[in-house]
Amino acid sequence: MSLFITVEGGEGGGKSTNMIYIADYLKAKGYEVVETREPGGTALGEKLRNLLLDKNISNMDCSTELLLMFATRAQHIAEVIKPALDAGKWVLCDRFTDATYAYQGGGRNIPMERIAVLEDWVQGELRPDLTLLLDIPVEEGMKRATLRGEKDRFEQEQISFFERVRQRYLAMAAQQPNRYRIINAAQTLECVQSDIKQVLEEVCCQ
Ligand code: Z5A
């Protein structure tokens, strides 16, 4: 059995830190895991990522941004995600389409129906089996993230943008409780990882 797991959340939730923890945990259980990320995950996708995050591009239209997110996703699915799942591997992805609903939908106010059309077109029936939402209050997350230094194009947004992103994530988690697990990412790293381990044991590694 292969599983498609995504990790989502706002600024400073610790996705990169916990991706490593999750991958190591699954590999120790004997699963073959492909770790990847969006936007990016392929050579072409990483080039598009650089454009999407470039803080010097200040006038990117929100439709351009949305379409570039799905352009990288189309390539990512064709080149990495689908072949891995077809080969029986597990795919662990740092952000996927829920990020589009949260950032372009919640953050930029693009109608959800428009995103859903692209989701169906680009993904067909492909959806994550499990989504871990690393949830943290926006101000706390921003304090952590600012320690990282220079801000990219998204990180330069106002706090109200990130509040809308967080609320959209929480709304999706409430609507899809079978797929989503909310992790309180404001806790110590030890507690966060203990909660993640519990979910992995419950959902996929019994
Ligand atoms: N985006 C989009 O708009 N639409 C889409 O469809 C997709 C993406 C797919 C880049 O994503 C941008 O793309 C993103 C949304 C947009 N923009 N924003 N903002 P990304 O995932 O590559 O970038 P990111 O959001 O900055 O993720 P990240 O690098 O994984 O950051 P993080 O979640 O903040 O994780 P971290 O780097 O592991 O942790 C941040 C700091 O906190 C770090 O110093 C850690 O050591 C520390 N940390 C982590 N956990 C803890 C705990 N528990 N306690 C204390 N300190 C901690």
Assess the beta-strand content as a share of residues.
5-15%
Helix tally equals: 8
Strand order of the largest sheet: 2-3-1-4-5
* Weakly predicted, low-confidence segments: none
Q: Give the bound compounds.
A: ligand Z5A
The average pLDDT score comes to 96
Question: How does this structure look, described?
Answer:
The structure is a single chain. With 206 residues, the chain is of the alpha/beta class. The chain is built from eight helices and five strands, in the order βαβααβααβααβα. It has helices at residues 15-28, 43-53, 62-86, 97-107, 112-123, 138-146, 159-175, 189-203; strands spanning 4-9, 33-37, 90-94, 130-135, 180-184. It has a five-stranded parallel β-sheet with strand order 2-3-1-4-5, sandwiched between helices. Ligand Z5A is lined by residues 9, 11-17, 38-39, 69, 94-95, 99-100, 103-104, 144-145, 147, 154-155, 188-189, 192.
Descriptive key words:
single chain; alpha/beta; 5-stranded parallel beta sheet; 13% strand
Provide a short characterization of the protein structure.
This protein is an alpha/beta fold and 206 residues long.
Topology summary:
Blueprint: E1 4-9, H1 15-28, E2 33-37, H2 43-53, H3 62-86, E3 90-94, H4 97-107, H5 112-123, E4 130-135, H6 138-146, H7 159-175, E5 180-184, H8 189-203
Parallel strand pairs: 1-3, 1-4, 2-3, 4-5
Helix pairs in contact: 1-8, 2-3, 3-5, 4-7
